Amino acid sequence: MRMIVVGGGQAGRSLARLLLERRHEVCLIEKDRARCQKLADELDAAVFPGDGSTVSVLEAAGARRADCVMAVTGVDQVNLIAAQLAAGHFGAKKVIARVNDPRNAETFRSLGITDVVSSTELVVQLIEQEADSAHMHLIASLNQGKGEICSMNLPPDTAWEGRALKDVDFPKGTLVISLIRQGKLTIPNGSTVLHAGDELVAVAEDRSRKALHRVLGEVK
Fold it and tell me: Using one digit for the tens of pLDDT, what is the confidence trace for 132-144?
């Protein structure tokens, strides 16, 4: 996945290192040129000098092709503008913004930035979730992140080929609500037979998401 990190401070550097370890393609944007050089020497990532809250710099960093843009500078205004540009102007698939002052969190959400975190640890947690769910797509977040509606396509060599939905040992806290096959949506029941390529849409508690991903990802 192509990741863009806005901000090369402690949070940004830690995120970039984690993402590189997970073999993601990383582009880091940092305003301070001296720090840029240090980051370029330290990390195997593309480092862009400039203001990550401007269209030109985000464009140069490849925001139009980004799977996820993370604005994690120490300035909330910069993070908000960068996140809004990434989501609205460039159409990034996923946008995460760091809030240094927790009182600003609701302002971010009211302006359309739903994935807001107020500490480096929470940012890392979100990124780990993204990496673990590379083939699971978030459709909607429920109850302030405590649950979600997500979808996943069964792999070509799925272990569930020709098996009925009732045969799948779904983890507690999950419920399949629809199945999409060749563009046609159906509401499945226990006797619905599964095939490779089927897209299953499910409601899952946050604590059950990883287990659901493992079950649906089982192969022969």
Answer: 444 567 777 777 6
Together in a domain, 68 and 164 = no
**Could you tell me the CA-to-CA distances from 183 to 84, 136, 187, 199 in Å, in that order?**
32, 18, 13, 9
pTM for the whole thing?
0.57
Per the structure, the complete domain to which residue 141 belongs is given by 136-216
Examine the domain organization and report whether 99 and 184 are in the same domain: no
* DSSP strand pairing (136-142 vs 147-153): antiparallel
Tens of pLDDT along 156-193?
Answer: 899 999 999 999 999 999 999 999 999 899 999 999 99
Task: Give me the CATH number covering residue 54.
Answer: 3.40.50.720
Q: State the number of CA atoms in the 13 A half-sphere of 152 facing the CB.
A: 27
